[in-house]
Amino acid sequence: MIALLIFGWTVDIDRQDNRTVSERNRVDAMLKNLKLGTKFSLILILIFVGALAISGSILSLVLQQRAQDEVTSKADVLLETMNSVRNYTNNRVKPLLASKAATEPTFISETASGFAATEIFEGVRKNGKYNNFLYKEAAPNPTNLRDKADDFEAALVSRFTADSSLKELTGFRSLPGGDVFFISRPLRIPEKSCLQCHSTPAAAPKSLLTTYGSENGFNWKLGAVVAAQTISVPVDEVYASAWRSWSFVMGALVAVFVLLLLVVNSLLKRSVIRRIGRMAVTADAVSTGQMEASFSEDSTDEIGTLATAFNRMKASLEIALKLLNQQTR
């Protein structure tokens, strides 16, 4: 049984080899029957397709990285702007409204730096350049549940907490609305004054408890990472400009190649193929006894030299034929 299986497997391999050889022979025969100009065109097309595939892949990677760097640069500017808003709110707005906040029955959210930054960013999004950018100060334990971190964002906070030297994280993630590219930085508690509203419910202003309750946003520690300041942008937005640039460059390359192919074919036909064709016709005529035919070439290049050599050979052939006829007579 095993011997039969081995024999069948061997026969099948032989059949496949025979089919491969047969197909290769058909391809070789087809290539041999092609004209010289067609062969040159096929060679140029194969070279161009290979070069286009390699250069297209490299160009795509370069443009994608460039688009990612461009988005990252914009996000860096926005993050620095949001941090400036946070500092301004803590240093100027909050002290200015402190007396009023103490007597208000509800919490004045404008005194919270995170609230101010988020609201101002919503205003920035109305600009056409940034309408697809999303900003969130994602915290595992936020005062405002609008800032509640999901599992992915909580993992970012954990990474920032575990590695104090880590200043920024970038990458891609999937959301219900599609994939996004994100830039995230840690938000820490820099001063004790920030703990006035976040240490314990007993120490927090009553207006804060009235507005947000006593369950969230407490037990924060000085210097601890409490949130991941994150800006996200849809992946389509990241690569849209890269795709447009890639399409333009590749289209230009294809156009240049087509033009180059036409020029090369024209030059080949004029400088090589037509001249060789005339020589072939003349050689065929001479081979049938039409000695008046001449390899006429006024050029001194290689083909002209070959024509001169053929004319000398024809002259020698004529002399040899005359001598042969005289001897025969």
The spatial strand order of the largest sheet comes to: 1-4-3-2
Query: What helical percentage do the residues reach?
Result: 55-70%
Average predicted local confidence, pLDDT: 81
What can be said about the biggest beta sheet? 4 strands, antiparallel
CATH class categorisation of the domain at 71-236: Alpha Beta
Provide a count of the helices: 8
pLDDT < 50 runs, ≥5 residues: 1-7
Silhouette:
rod-shaped
- How far apart are the termini? 81 Å
Q: Count of DSSP E strands? A: 4
Order of helices and strands: HHHHEHEEHEHH
CATH topology of the domain at 71-236: Beta-Lactamase
Q: Decide which structural class fits the backbone.
A: alpha+beta
Beta content comes to 5-15%
Radius of gyration: 40 Å
Second CATH tier, the architecture of the domain at 71-236: 2-Layer Sandwich
GO cellular component, one term: membrane
Pfam family, one: Tll0287-like
Domain HAMP: 270-322
Transmembrane segments: 40-63, 246-268
Question: How would you describe this protein?
Answer:
Keywords: Membrane, Transmembrane, Transmembrane helix. InterPro entries: HAMP_dom, Tll0287-like_dom. It comes from Gloeobacter kilaueensis (strain ATCC BAA-2537 / CCAP 1431/1 / ULC 316 / JS1). It contains eight helices and four strands. With 329 residues, it is α+β, with helices and mostly antiparallel strands. The protein has a domain of 166 residues: Beta-Lactamase (2-Layer Sandwich). The protein has a four-stranded antiparallel beta sheet with strand order 1-4-3-2. The termini are far apart.
